[in-house]
Amino acid sequence: MVKKTDDKVLLAHGGGGQLSDQLIREHIIPRFRNKTLAELTDAAKLNLDSSKICFTTDSYVVKPLFFNGGDIGKLAVCGTINDLAVSGAKPVAISLALIIEEGFPFDSLDKILDSIAANAAENNVEIVTGDTKTVETGAADEIFINTTGIGIRLDGVEMGFDKIAVGDKVILSGTVGDHGMTIISHREDIGFKTQLKSDCAALADLTCKLLTEIKGVKFMRDPTRGGLAATLNEITKQTSLSIITNEVDIPISPTVQAAADMLGFDVLNIANEGKFVAVVSSQTAEECIKICHNHPLGKNAAIIGEVVKTTDVPLVEMLTKIGGKRIVQMPYGRDLPRIC
Amino acid sequence: MCLAIPARIVKLEDDRAIVDAMGNQFKARTTLLPDVKLGDLVLVHAGFAISTVDEEEAKKTWELIAEIDEFKDTPNKVSG
Amino acid sequence: MDATCEALGRQINIMEVCGTHTVSLFRNGIRSTLPRQIKLLSGPGCPVCVTDQGYIDTVLELADRPECVIATYGDMIRVPGKSRKGCCAGGSLETRQNTGNVKIILSSEDALQIAKENQDKIVVFVAVGFETTAPATAVVIQQAAKENIENFCILSNHKLVIPAMKAILSMPTNKIDAFLCPGHVSVIIGYGAFKEIAEQYKKPCVVAGFEPMQIIEGLAEICRLLIECKSEAKSIYTAVVTEKGNIAAQKIIDECFEPADGLWRGLGNIKVSTLKLREQYSKFDAMRRFGLTEKQVEEPTGCHCGEVLCGLMEPPECQLFGQVCTPQTPIGPCMVSSEGACTAWFKYGRKKNGANGQKNGR
Question: What global pTM score does this model have?
Answer without folding.
Answer: 0.89
